[in-house]
Design a protein that fits this description.
372 residues; alpha/beta; Aspartate Aminotransferase, domain 1; Aspartate Aminotransferase, domain 2; 2 domains; 40% helix; binds pyridoxal-5'-phosphate
Length: 372
């Protein structure tokens, strides 16, 4: 199989698995227990907290471990004060748009921030946003479909001037871009383990200590009393190890991805009529989303699957809906072209041979000559 869907999830790194196994087999104590077994688990969580903090550029005490990016995003929006106003960008992941719509249903004013044809928040949209006087804004750092990177530091400084809190979903940016939570000047940030070769079902909300967190799960006093429930120790240990590796290998990983992405884009641009969305923008080093007129993206995905290639036709969590991607729609991409969209997201185990094989399999499927 040629796996080209690393924005959906990544395979676990063997070194991460090795770090996790002792916490599934031998050190199974509850981290809240006071005896030695419990203390081992507690210490392991604290080490993982330091590893994640080092990758995101925060202090360990600013990290709340969650069940993943979705929960972190839900927690971030739950900080909206009673009767507060919320604004989110028009290209957010469903784990932001859905809780935002629930808040709207409950009577909060919710506004959507437009993006331009490149998927960027413009100055004008930012001015409109500020006029709306929200209490909380959520704008993702890098988009999961197009890979487009927002200038979050600039947005954060404009909003902070006005006393507006900014949350950023950094799930796709983590491990692919150097991130400094404190340096970005944002107040809340979501990350997830399974996008950086860690286990699924684990993530974190990073928070500015001046922001009042409203827990969404109640019970024991875990995670500073902000997220109850016995910690998923092995997964947290795995997330920590994955974070340590991502930090140590960031440059080398991105060099590898740049070579592969250049090769892929050079191949793709030989296809008449093919558009690489937001090609001229600052994008994640591993992500390429393209459209081909008259082609149905979901059908193409299925045909590629039959040939042993895994790609995505839209956001992984939203696929199967048959509607054009809301992200591309927000960018003003015509519905027909948006429905043809295929996202390739590269990863560490991909090779140049994978790219060439993929391209040779793709060509006949879109009426561009036979497979060689
Ligand atoms: N945010 C973005 C941008 C994502 O791409 C995803 C997953 O695809 C999530 C949030 C959700 O993260 P998780 O799968 O850890 O719940």
């Amino acid at each position: 199989m040629i796996y080209l869907d690393h924005n959906a999830t990544t395979p676990i790194d063997e070194r991460v698995l090795d770090a996790m196994l002792p916490y599934l087999k031998s050190f199974y104590g509850n981290p809240s227990s006071l005896y030695r077994q419990g203390r081992f688990a507690h210490t392991a969580i604290n080490r993982a907290r330091e590893q994640v903090a080092a990758l995101v550029g925060s202090s360990p005490s600013q990290i709340i471990f969650t069940s993943g990016g979705t929960e972190a995003n839900n927690m971030a929006l739950a900080t909206l004060p009673k009767e507060g106003r919320l604004a989110i960008s028009a290209i957010e992941h469903p784990s932001i748009t859905e809780p935002a719509l629930r808040l709207k249903h409950k009577g909060h004013e919710v506004s959507f921030v437009d993006v331009d044809q490149h998927g960027l928040i413009t100055e004008a949209a930012l001015d409109n946003l500020i006029r709306f006087q929200p209490n909380l804004v959520s704008i993702m750092l890098a988009n999961n479909e197009t890979g487009v990177i927002q200038d979050i530091a600039v947005i954060a400084s404009r909003l902070t001037e006005k006393g507006i809190l900014l949350h950023s979903d950094a799930v796709q940016a983590l491990g692919k871009l150097p991130i400094g939570f404190d340096r970005l000047g944002i107040h809340l940030m979501s990350v997830s383990s399974h996008k950086i070769y860690g286990p699924k079902g684990c993530g974190a909300l990073i928070f500015d200590k001046n922001v009042a967190i409203n827990p969404i799960i109640f019970g024991g006093g875990q995670e500073q009393g902000l997220r109850a429930g016995t910690e998923n120790v092995a997964a947290i240990v795995g997330f920590g190890k994955a974070a340590e590796l991502a930090q140590a290998e960031l440059v080398q990983r991105n060099e590898h991805l740049a070579v592969l992405r250049n090769l892929l884009e050079n191949c793709l641009t030989t296809i008449p009529g093919l558009t690489i969305f937001a090609q001229a923008m600052q994008r994640l080093p591993n992500t390429v989303q393209f459209g081909i007129p008259e082609i149905d993206g979901e059908m193409l995905l299925m045909k590629l699957d039959q040939k042993g290639v895994a790609v995505s036709s839209a956001s992984a969590c939203a696929s199967g809906g048959g509607k054009p991607s809301p992200v591309l729609t927000a960018m003003g991409i015509e519905a027909g072209l948006a429905k043809s969209a295929i996202r390739i997201s590269l990863g560490q185990t991909n090779t140049e041979a994978d790219i060439l094989k993929f391209f040779n399999l793709l060509k006949p499927l879109i009426g561009q000559g036979s497979s060689s």
